[in-house]
């Protein structure tokens, strides 16, 4: 299971007269295996919130707990290990190593976790799960955008994480490719039981989630199931 509890989370970038309050006291409880969309206008604090939950950045105050463990109190090494093993990340711009093959990219989190034995077989299976087994040996920078995002999804899931974070996963793709990537993300979310936390501008993608949290000016504006939102 993977359930987050965020308490009074704040994030201030910069200091003094240039200080900017990107999160202004966000409290949120997620449920195990939930799919959650974080939506809102550009600059509202969506990525900042995802980065706090994913241990990519530290909050200024407040706490982030996962299954009852306060992650904000972990030492740096423990936080790195937890992020690598329990979290998977997919970003708008893929973030693959362009010179490495697809399968080499997917083995990276396993090697970081010290699980080199069997890494290639596990990476190949993960590529198979995203429909790219036949491109395992292809250099990442020669793949299409949609294929690169599939490699990124395979890399995010190869460690069998408890949580899959996706920040604008379809933002760099045309709508047809974006829809195919969305299908893959949700199929794997259902198949693996990993929680899915998505930052998106896409209303179609948000509508697929169990729950939609809208952020405005660093605070939660609304928190609804998509059906309820459609009826409102
Ligand atoms: N490292 C940083 N230093 C200073 N300000 C930052 C930093 N990162 C983000 N910000 C600011 O914090 C605010 C929230 O940024 P964030 O990226 O979380 O917004 P967002 O809702 O994800 O926006 P978008 O939809 O455009 O990606 C923005 O005004 C942004 O300029």
**Integer-rounded radius of gyration:** 18 Å
Helix-strand pattern: EEEHEEHEHHHEHEHEEH
Instruction: List the uncertain runs.
Output: none
Global geometry: globular
At the fold tier of CATH, the topology name is Rossmann fold
Description:
It is a single chain. With 232 residues, the protein is an alpha/beta fold. It has a single domain, classed as Rossmann fold (3-Layer(aba) Sandwich), CATH 3.40.50. 36% of the residues lie in helices and 26% in strands. The protein contains 8 helices and 10 strands. It has a 6-stranded mixed β-sheet with strand order 6-7-8-3-9-10. It has a 4-stranded antiparallel β-sheet with strand order 2-1-4-5, covered by helices on one side. Strand 1 and strand 2 form a beta hairpin. It is globular and about 50 Å long. The two termini are 31 Å apart. The mean pLDDT is 94. The chain binds adenosine-5'-triphosphate (ATP).
Structure summary:
This protein is of the alpha/beta class. The chain has one domain: P-loop containing nucleotide triphosphate hydrolases (Rossmann fold), CATH 3.40.50. It contains 8 helices and 10 strands.
